[in-house]
Amino acid sequence: METPDGAPILPKAELHLHIEGTLEPELILELAARNGKVLPHPTLAGLRAQYQFTDLQSFLDLYYANMAVLVTEADFADMTRAYLGRAREAGVRHAEVMFDPQAHLARGIPLTTAVAGISSVLADSFDEFGITTGLIAAFLRDRPEDDALDVLGQLLAMDAPIIGIGLDSAEVGNPPSKFIRLFDRARDAGLRLVAHAGEEGPPSYVWDTLDLLGAERIDHGIRCVEDSRLVERLATGQVPLTVCPLSNVRLRAVDTLAAHPLPQMLASGLNVSINSDDPAYFGGYAGANFAALVDEFGFDADTLERLAGNSIRSSFARDARKEELLAELAAWRAAQG
Ligand SMILES: Nc1ncnc2[nH]cnc12
Ligand SMILES: [Zn+2]
């Protein structure tokens, strides 16, 4: 991939992306019209005016409300196709995409509609966009574990093409200890395990996500810097942390990008990657996150290579694909001089 002026784009993997968080306001209005849904804010300007967040919950309220426009398989497919187009422009070469099955079931949308709509597009993502992909079913931690177990059972029974499970939604007050059986069940089924932790929640949630749930990757994890023993543990084990800088600023997890702990995390030797989380809500896709970091911290080519390399190595892509992408990354670095 190259920019319009011919410069190569940093090749990267995106490991922390909620597909429902890629629903751009324009597509929300288009799908609402298609499905005869009346939105509380039916104009582009009115809808956009809602995108001011004070914390995670204030965002989640809008994120779940906007999902009402996703009704048919074609809606899920259109959303997924739009994401892949934008991801390609951002230099994403491998993407592990989360979706929230419980949020759709709760609205009366059959699991098969969401799964078939998203996965039909992911199945052709390499041929159409040059992006290899995997699908992760994320479970809502503000709902009971039994509900998650029931939905995981349905996904397994229908042989849904998922590579793993995740844990998302309102973190504080919903500790990892609530989901031990869910993660045990997913591990037994051969699924990969990731979970949000340390976004708004305390360092103890990150410890428990590792020790009680056995998660292989931590989504966010930025509050680890408050606990030096935890930082040591994460650094020693090179546990991947999928950091989302623009998300953290927009959800007020940090005051400003300048105050973001990312430079400290890198200096501590942590395995950090850069991701976009819910790019339609937080001001941009992977490329915008990298650009903001370069603007703010003046990251050089070596640091960008390290961040992109971490994303590739921490992915669940096949080894041969990782090698291919690491070679592309080496070529990018060589072109930087
Ligand atoms: N940043 C985030 N944290 C927790 N749950 C989410 N669901 C979608 N985006 C999320
Ligand atoms: Zn997230």
From TrEMBL:
Pfam families per record: A_deaminase
EC code(s) of this entry: 3.5.4.2
Cofactor: Zn(2+)
Entry keyword set: Cytoplasm, Hydrolase, Metal-binding, Nucleotide metabolism, Zinc
Gene Ontology terms for molecular function: adenine deaminase activity; zinc ion binding
Enzyme active site: E199
Binding site for Zn(2+): H16, H18, H196, D277
Residues reported to bind substrate: D278
Site (Important for catalytic activity): H220
Catalytic activity: adenine + H2O + H(+) = hypoxanthine + NH4(+)
Protein name: Adenine deaminase
